[in-house]
Amino acid sequence: MKMLHVTIHTDRFEDELKFYQEIVGLKIVNDRRPARQMVFLANGEGETEIEIIGETEAKDAGNENLAVGFRSEDPEKKREELIALGYDCTPMISPGPGVSFFFIKDPAGVKVQFM
User: Fold this and answer.
1) What is the CATH classification number for the domain harbouring 35?
2) Among 32, 50, 56, 80, which residue's CB has the most CB atoms within a 10 Å radius?
3) pLDDT for res 85
4) What is the pLDDT of residues 45-90, one digit of tens each?
């Protein structure tokens, strides 16, 4: 079985779309606009996708027990870049040798891990 996508319902559709394109580096692979505020983003065709759905009733989508993780070539450098852009990043976390990561929240409140 293959994971297809993670869905985020948000009242900040444009901010959320910009975050996953500019900060995470994903590309739109399926765009349902203008019929609906809905896009699917991924690294490429056939990859696991992030589905963003704009809904005016959706509020903070965050859940402290849920995180979406992405691999970064240099997590420390990525953290510094995000801090310079005004994001509130956790300190670097290193639970073992060769493993380091940090978290931020996307505009909808979803916890995002870069490792």
Assistant:
1) 3.10.180.10
2) 50
3) 96
4) 899 999 999 998 887 767 777 889 999 999 999 999 999 999 999 9
DSSP 21: I
Name the amino acid, one letter, at 86: G
Using a 10 angstrom Cβ sphere, with 0-12 exposed, 13-18 middle and 19 or more buried, the burial of residue 62 is middle
Q: Is 18 helix (H, G, I), strand (E, B) or coil?
A: helix
Q: Domain of residue 104: give its range.
A: 5-56+66-114
Q: Measure the CA–CA gap between 40 and 50, rounded to whole angstroms.
A: 6
Is 47 inside a domain boundary?
A: yes
pLDDT at 30: 96
Alpha carbon distance 57, 39 (integer Å): 18
